[in-house]
Amino acid sequence: MTNPEADASVPASAFQATGEEDLLDALRQGDEATFVFLVTRYHAALVRLARTFVADEATAEEVVQETWLAVLNGIEKFEARSSLKTWIFRILMNRAKTRGVRDKRSAPFSSLDASLDQQDPAVDPDRFTSTEDGQWSGHWLYPPTDWDVTPEQVILSSETREIIERTIASLPPGQRQVITLRDLEGWSAAEVCNALGLSETNGRVLLHRARAKVRSALEQYFMSESTS
Amino acid sequence: MSEFEHMSCRELVETITEYLEGSLPRADLDRFESHLQICDGCRHYLSQMKTTVAALRSLCDDRLQAAQRDELVNLFHGWKRG
Fold first, then answer.
1. C-alpha torsion angle, residues A227, A145, A167, B22 (rounded to 10)
2. Inter-chain residue contact A8 with B69, CB threshold 8 Å
3. DSSP secondary structure letter of residue A180
4. What Rg, from alpha-carbon coordinates, does chain B have?
5. I want to staple A133 with a disulfide (CB 3.0 to 4.6 A). Which of A96, A137, A203, B10 is the partner?
6. What CATH architecture applies to the domain A109-227?
């Protein structure tokens, strides 16, 4: 018997030499190791993205399982006009959106656009001097301070980690989708906008607001830490 | 040459994502960088934002649980059987 934990990840190196075409061929021939390689690589990311469209974790997991089945059923006809990854994520998003609408959960893209029109300053305007201050208007009244912390320390502390996760969970759907793909998954800005059907500008505005909120939540925490 | 309009802290804060994404137009980039040279508060803000983004980047835990994997392998076997 092999240890199922150790078995759970397939070394990516085993597949690095093979191109996408080989991957597709193997999958079409029903190669289990190739399927396990793909789910190891994308499943968690797919669930995270699905979660931004549907009401709960269980539904997200369900939608992703349906997606994998659709991938397997469609692989024969997949013409590789896009990358396999793009295709898988597109199937996921279509299914997650449909499911979210059915469950009245997700924000249709029109309401996402409406939220873009609203003012949503990155920093509380009260922290800057007002317009009456002439040439010094818009300057820091309460400037940010040095956090004196590395990103690794932020991630390793369960408190700050939880603050980040909670803040992301509380974001409006559009902001949450953009920050999930761009920052958590490390997609390029173009890939994100393409996948979500956003203009470059709107994608960046959503990213800007989402990041600002995470920063602000961390700042509040570090400020309360330094005064306590 | 047109008059160089200084960037306020408030404007810098709102253009920081364009700066970090490398999409800030040349003229604004100069204003952004000159402002940084004279403003500790904005330097801290930029550094906080970089820390935030770097933390987000390493937040992902993409390990697949053994139970999840087993479920997916079952799904695969079901598909193969047709």
1. -170
2. yes
3. I
4. 23
5. A137
6. Orthogonal Bundle (1.10)
**B73–A contact, CB cutoff 8 A:** yes
- Tell me, what's the ipTM? 0.88
Tell me which chain B residues have a C-beta less than 8 angstroms from the C-beta of A155. 55, 58-59
User: Chain B residues with CB inside 8 Å of A45's CB?
Assistant: 60, 62
Among the CATH numbers 3.40.50.620, 1.10.1740.10, 2.60.200.30, 3.30.450.40, which is that of A4-102? 1.10.1740.10
Residues B56, A214: C-beta atoms closer than 8 Å: yes
pTM for the model stands at 0.83
Cα–Cα distances in angstroms (integers) from residue A222 to residues A22, A215, B39, in the given order: 49, 10, 21
What count of CB pairs under 8 Å joins A to B?
Answer: 151
Question: Is B51 in Cβ contact with A72 (below 8 Å)?
Answer: no
Contact check, Cβ <8 Å, A36/B10 = no
pLDDT of res. B32 = 97
CA B42 – CA A102 distance, rounded (Å) = 45
| pLDDT confidence tier of residue A105, bands split at 50, 70 and 90 | low
Token pair belonging to A130 = 């007002």
